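dude i think i finally got it to work??
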Amino acid sequence: MVPVRFLLLIPLIALLNGYGVEARIRRYKWEVKNEFKSPDCYRKMVITINGRTPGPTIRAQQNDTIIVEVTNSLFTENIAIHWHGIRQIGTPWFDGSEGITQCPILPGTTFKYQFVVDRPGTYVYHAHYGMQRDSGLYGSIIVGLPDGESEPFAYDYDRNIILNDWYHNSTTEQAVGLSKVPFQWIGEPQSLLIHGRGRFNCSSLSVPSSDPGLCNTTNPDCFPFRLIVVPGKTYRLRVSSLTSLSALSFQIEGHKLTVVEADGHYVEPFVVQNLFIYSGETYSVLVKADQDPTTNYWITSNIVSRPAPNTPPGQGVLVYYPNHPRRSPLTIPPAAPVWNDSRPRMAQSQAIKARRGYIHTPPAVSDRVIVFLNTQNELNGRRRWSVNNVSFTHPLTPYLIALKHNLTHAFDQNPPPDGYDFLNYDIYERHPNANTTSSNGIYRLNFNSIVDVILQNANTMNPKNSETHPWHLHGHDFWVLGYGEGKFDMFNDPNKYNLVNPIMKNTVPVNPFGWTALRFKADNPGAWSFHCHIESHLFMGMGVVFAEGIEKVGKLPSSIMGCGQTQGL
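look at this
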């Protein structure tokens, strides 16, 4: 029998051996359902979590375990939820990518996600089935340091803001239009939301409604977002973008923004007036409430990188306590950046470097180089996006399951190409042969190999037009080695890579007619999506899948089965 006095010493022994700061288990129960909401004053059917959009914020500390029980109470739609920025080390089946890591969650069923948040930082979660993110199924994940540890910058208060764009058509209507012959583009968003709140001009409705509740600017749902600050205090604002289409600028009238974190990694601090942010990116900026405290100030978001003259800016208010929260600023909102001036956006991208003392030096060379040419094409008369002239399609059986169980007939076993006709392809012209092919083949990476990815933008189906694409990698962070204009020069541009202090991220933009170079280590066993984070572009085929270390993946939980060839496994 163990003496009582020894049992009392066990917690002390654990503390002395480094186990004193125990990771916690954070449990959440979510019901996902359809509800009518008016986030921009226009009423439409949205997807909520426990009655809210944005959904509840997950708050945890490094190495905590998150358990989320999700009940799908939608009428007819499946769902899946991706934990964006969480690498899912040891739990690749809970990445939340339908068709890649799991079967969808059917209506009327409950699914349990369980994973560890292994790094502090600012992350998000969102739907990863169809284009449901556009319907409001998203929220924030805030991971703090363990007790007793501190960050390399000081602040008094911590707040988070999600930026979004908003459409009045349902995602089903959008998807039908994108799949039509002739092609029907979704158009620009009707409004911009700042943490779930925007303002649509109801008088601009093309067909006036007899329903006075359809568009009502007095609805509390669309009162402007208000951030209350105490004069003299410094605030950490965790700013995330989950737009469906738009690249944005974010600014607070009269206040400087000091960038200190990007996608969960500390940044060598630099100051901006406008924070340019692309879909899938997260930043932390420090803002000091050091202006005239007798007035309030505008918080604005504006579309950049594409013309959107009919989309009003997102507007919120920075409220200096004790001013009344409903008091509007005395000024007009600050001017937006010029939408088609890419120079300040490129300058911000190039300014983002790893913070001294927190640099993860990349390997000096890579084992494999893959060049992805992003093009717009047609397939059987339908408009598609392609990578190296291959438009991605999801298989019926999720890749992770098919690979683990060697279901070789579940998807195309031929790998997509590693590059394109670099010497002869003119990225500045619409290609004379607009036809593309489709495939659900994947890129198989040697485990622990170092992989370079070059993302190259080109002309779309429209003359003299190229778009911004934010690419997001699941299961990994990557080093951002460089950006450039024009066609990537495989002989000379690698000599310009930043191998000294590159930032690590999980989402990165590729500018119009430009390129972005990434490097990552294929050290996380699983099947991982890499795709454009614009909802319509992924829907139209702009993505790929990497597989690595499948033999090291543990036993798959039965909860992810049930579709395609997984039935009966």
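The mean pLDDT is 94.
im so relieved honestly
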